[in-house]
């Protein structure tokens, strides 16, 4: 019944998407030509002339939505952020496909303004539609509609924690049928749910109860039963799922790799290990940084002259930092301090009223202008525009002994700014909190997150109290 409901829901979702995309095109046409639907008859600007490509748009958009996973069940996705990003991706690809087809079919008089309106409207309406649908579904599930029933095998701490999570999050739409465990009798109750028997009773329970999923929470010493349990679930067409006892060590989105048929679960999920993601991020860096160097070149020259005038010494300060895969590189800055002994400088931490700073140096540090030469580190591929801030080798060695997971940040290129910095963890702030934010960035990177950090950096650049 649940599977049938899911199939009906997916069909309904496709129909709603068809309607939303059609509506977006109609509204875009009406805004562009400032008319009403009685003006069908005209050629250029006529409704039929612009609605004809809809025959190409609808199937292509629905296919793109399908391939991006927008028709897969989202029951366990509490946030709509991921779905929003996928809709943005799908609509960008769909609009590109539409423009390409218009060119191929020689629709040369198709309004570009209307196309832009359609792209914006279809995205906004689709995101709104999905948001409303998810909220309605969550509400219905919280009222015990569209429920999936789970049988839990095991009654240990892992099983009890799983049950507690299910019961605290009614929006998920799950209900516990009961437990199977050989250490309890059928008269026992665990957290209010009945023990239906031992593991040997699995087939009887699946025959006599409505069960959609079997969740196995056994300890490794009980895995002798695993093969029989999975075969029994397959026999009755019930999905079997395992919560491994080491799940606490896995990331929120574990990645499965395969070497000659042997599955490997990656303990640390790094989206930027994906070659396409790396390419996308590199393009993002170069598209923004190369024009920025050209545009800001007069400022760079003026700052260089003022640094030289303000105190004796080199204009550019180079300092060894650890980057991607713990490889060291020379990070560039405009010199903001008096020339120091290189060996002593390696072990000194900058403070708010540091006497080593020059007067002009204090200004460029406060406004982050001293960081601009790192554009050239980015062009060289040693850094990225967005990423965890790089640290000196001495402090990296110190922190890796004091702060768990500190070295995880070196799985990606370091950045000029990052998730920690835009959340206020810059300068003399908590290293532990900074690393927590860095690890979040490493494990949850998306282009949308980079864009968010970029704009937050621009907004905060002149009001960051920790910039000194």
Give the strand line-up of the largest sheet.
Answer: 3-4-2-1-5-6
What kind of sheet is the major sheet? 6 strands, mixed
Number of domains: 3
Question: How many extended strands?
Answer: 12
Query: Compute the gyration radius: what is it?
Result: 29 Å
Helix content: 40-55%
Q: Specify the oligomeric state.
A: single chain
Contiguous helical run count: 16
What is the chain-wise order of helices and strands? Answer: HHHHHEHEEEHEHEEEHEEHHHEHEHHH
Strand content: 5-15%
State the separation between the terminal residues, measured CA to CA.
Answer: 62 Å
Instruction: Return residue spans where pLDDT drops below 50 for at least 5 consecutive residues.
Output: 36-44
Globally, the shape reads flat
Going by helix content, strand content and strand pairing, the class is alpha/beta
Task: Report mean pLDDT, rounded to a whole number.
Answer: 81
Description:
The structure is a single chain. The protein has 468 residues and is of the alpha/beta class. The chain has 3 domains: 2-142, no CATH class; 148-249, Rossmann fold; 275-460, no CATH class. It has 16 helices and 12 strands. It has helices at residues 2-33, 47-51, 54-67, 81-104, 112-142, 157-168, 202-208, 226-235, 275-310, 342-345, 359-366, 374-379, 393-402, 419-422, 431-444, 447-460; strands spanning 148-153, 174-180, 189-190, 193-197, 213-216, 239-242, 255-259, 262-266, 316-322, 328-334, 384-386, 415-417. Strands 3-4-2-1-5-6 form a 6-stranded mixed sheet, with helices on both faces. Helix 1 packs antiparallel against helix 5 (112-142). The longest helix has 36 residues, at 275-310. It is flat and about 85 Å long.
